[in-house]
Amino acid sequence: MEQDRISMEELARYRKDTAGCQHVAHFNNAGASLPADVVVETVVQYLKAEAISGGYETEDLHTEKLEQVYTLIAELIGGHKDEIAICENASTAWTIAFKGLSLKPGDEIITSELEYVSNLLNLLDAERTGVKVNVIMNDEHGRFPLQALEKAINEQTKLIAVTHIPSSGGNMLPIEEIGSIAQKHRIFYMVDACQSIGQYPVDVKKINCQVLSATGRKYLRAPRGTGFLFVSKSAQEQVRPLLIDQHATSSISLEGYSLRPDARRYELYEKNRALSLGLGKAVEYVLDVGIGRVWERVRSLAALIREGLSGIPGITVHDHGDQLCGIVTFTSEAVHSRELRDKLAKRGINVSVGGAAATLHYMQRNGLTSLVRASVHYYNTEEEIDRLITAVKEITAELQ
To answer: Which residues form the signal peptide (predicted)?
Structure first.
């Protein structure tokens, strides 16, 4: 059953399937996860076939497999393949949907303090046209206040747009409850699931969202340069394609054209077919592992990191809220975040640094200019976590 825990035998197999696990303790999965070997091989073999047979000819031979990618993504998020568009990344997917909405001066958007910088830039751009953006701040316990959300809604509210899991924090927004409020008030609802897909079970029907954007390179373990956009069937007429070519149409003449009746109206014809197949193989891999089992292991490993870091003098863990994810953020009194990251890298341990701009409202409100981000995945081990904790303790002790 999916909810059974990943066994040590399975873990050994998943790590054997992943060449990077033999070389580094990788805690930068919120940046880009280590791909399974089969994902890499899928991309490489397709590129080799293109070099031998030609690009269009190779695509013709892989039509069925390329079509299957949409079906696999739909299965992962509980949607339909006609509601999926393949994009280069989550920012592209989110922007395509947002820019496709018919917002006008006087309309209002509600978002949260955890909104990602790419989305925030588009919201700031909308404000220049007379659209009002209302930012809901978390409470003192790091929880998103649903009552404040409902209170902020008025006749001008046309969109609720939130990021489920922030770039620089371990807390999570209650996207299902937010979706219920949006549905109750008949407000268009967009979810950025960039950090969610691949670590957390996401079901678009339970969330009641019209739009969901995601990337491949993070917890999904797909190649960089991949992502997808979900637009519900009922919302596709409300979201205009940002760019358009013949791929987006079902018919075209000198008198006009008709858009195709699915989410691929948001794609352009020319994309990297090898990366698309790699994305599909990564989705297939996580479906085989079981996303519920991935989530169970990710959050338990992240809890071990938080517990270990909290016991180190001068280290502050910054994750707050009712539900925490696989992203662990912390700062050191003894060493700057970037220096600590670099010193850990010399020990074969990958972490990343979250800058102030990534989640601007959150970082400014909490007086943070940077923090270390250690993001765990199911293929990480308890021994690797011990290495991380020991290394942070030794590095900070040397610089006290």
So the answer is: none
Residues 281, 40: contact at Cβ < 8 Å? no
Indicate the domain borders of the chain. 8-34+290-399, 40-288
**C-beta atoms surrounding 32 within 10 Å:** 19
Q: Each residue of 37-90: pLDDT tens digit?
A: 999 999 999 999 999 999 999 999 999 999 999 999 999 999 999 999 999 999
pLDDT digits (tens, 9 = 90+) for 242-288: 999 999 999 999 999 999 999 999 999 999 999 999 999 999 999 99
SS3 at position 108 = strand
At the fourth CATH level, the homologous superfamily of domain 8-34+290-399 is Aspartate Aminotransferase, domain 1 (3.90.1150.10)
Specify whether the backbone of 314 is left (phi greater than 0), alpha (psi in -120 to 50) or beta: left
The CATH code of domain 40-288 reads 3.40.640.10
H or E element at residue 382: helix 382-399
